[in-house]
Amino acid sequence: MPPTLASLVHHSALKLTVRAGEDRLDVPVRWAHVSELADPVPYMEGGELLLITALKLDADDPEAMRRYVKRLAAAGVVGLGFAVGVNYDEIPGALVEAARDEGLPLLEVPRRTPFLAISKAVSAAIAADQYRSVTAGFAAQRELTKQALTGGPEGLLAALASQVDGWAALYDASGAVVATAPEWAGRRAARLTADVERLRERPAPASSVVGGSGTSDNDDRVELHSLGTGRRPRSALAVGTAAALGTAERYAVHSAIALLTLTTERSRSLQAAEQRIGAAVLRMLLAGEPEHARTVAGDLYGGLLDAPFRLIVAETVAVSSVRIAADAPTRVPSAAALAAAADTNGDPLEALTEVVESAAARSGEAVLVVPERERLVVLAADGGAAVTACGEYAVALEAARTREQASAGDEDELVVGVSAPAGPIAAASAYKQAEQALAVARRRGRVHVEHEQLASGSVLPLLADDAVRAFADGLLRPLYEHDATGRGDLVASLRAWLARHGQWDAAAADLGVHRHTLRYRMRRVEEILGRSLDDPDVRMELWLALKATTSAE
Predict the structure, then answer these.
(1) C-alpha distance from residue 313 to each of 13, 163, 430, 432, 497 (Å)
(2) Taking the model in full, what pTM does it have?
(3) CA–CA separation, 284 and 298 (whole Å)
(4) Which of 394, 406, 401, 276 is nearest to 340 (CA)?
(5) Cβ atoms < 10 Å from Cβ of 292
């Protein structure tokens, strides 16, 4: 504790006597200052014990003393020390009365106690308090380090909450609460998500103070600090207390920030090493060597290979080539996904990596993320938090694209393909499935397509591909050229006949011609194309070609 007027009064060597303000002696003293000015207020900062001999004061004038004492109190002076036996044998009654009226503590300083002794006592007490704070801070640092090594972030938060006599919470990069201490602080921490998101928008390191207005019993004073060494913070720390932090508590918070930064912000070399291991595991899986992959994965990724997983392949495409599909999902995206989708400045693949890794970290599951040239490959547990977060993020991007399609910029857009659940032995097939889903996502103008959706939809949207249309135009061109001469409507006849599954009477009725006329036209189709309509493959190709040209029209 810093020195107070009470501690100075009880100091045996100073022999101070209280003449007024006996009920306000517990206030801390920031410094002891000597001034004989008639108005020392311009030189005061607040918290001082002012020492005087009344050399230039008319201490017997009640009105002058009331004005003098009132200005001192308004300036934040916590006490007045009056030396007797110098200019006055005792403290003038006018000053005593003014001090009592204003409630300002007035101390009588005996002739044998020099002002220097009081200044030294205050200085020594302040130094001792600072030393105790530093010592307590180092002790807190040792305890926090021990907890970080043995209990991880959760243990560190518990130790920090104890040190500051409050609560602490850790947030991930998306602003979601990862851990709190004590547990009851979870609800309070959750209410600060919006403040954490605003903090993330500022360059690191950043901090802010929220709450503490005293309008309710639960209105804590909360400090928010960003964690991380990069341009954008990877996480944030919240510390809630009933009052402003003292010196020792401040040391503890700073130590916690450093330790949490070390535990949440992995070094570049470690990150690169993990990515190399992940890439090696993925290559072995795709090469059909699951046992070797499991050996290399070890404890880092081994758990992923013990249960069904999904492969996710993502890449970026130019925004000009993206069209919003009419069959885009209509699910309502989560608030966290909307926030992540709204913050897509920079590399879309990096943003997806942050979303997936944050979700996996919150749920405690492993996830393998491998940057592969111009794409990103993710291996994540089927039904796990990472796969779910990827889907929700894609839905949010779909919604954002739909709203902003008219004002689309030049940034690249994300497309994602997801495989069906698979095991290590089928990793190569899962990768091919993810690539197929990715290709369909590009063609359909979708952000996210799962392989299971390919079979549930129609094949017709796939005919919009330029290569398919070119094939269809080449196949049907002789028939169109024939019809252009006015020698018969072969294209329409072929379409009607195929639509009626080769039923002559029904197709002829649709066309309004005799069935013999239709038979003649189909023989002409065979002659012109050099293909037999008895071949089911030929009929299939012609039908798809007709569909492709119809959609192009």
Answers:
(1) 79, 46, 10, 10, 42
(2) 0.52
(3) 14
(4) 394
(5) 15
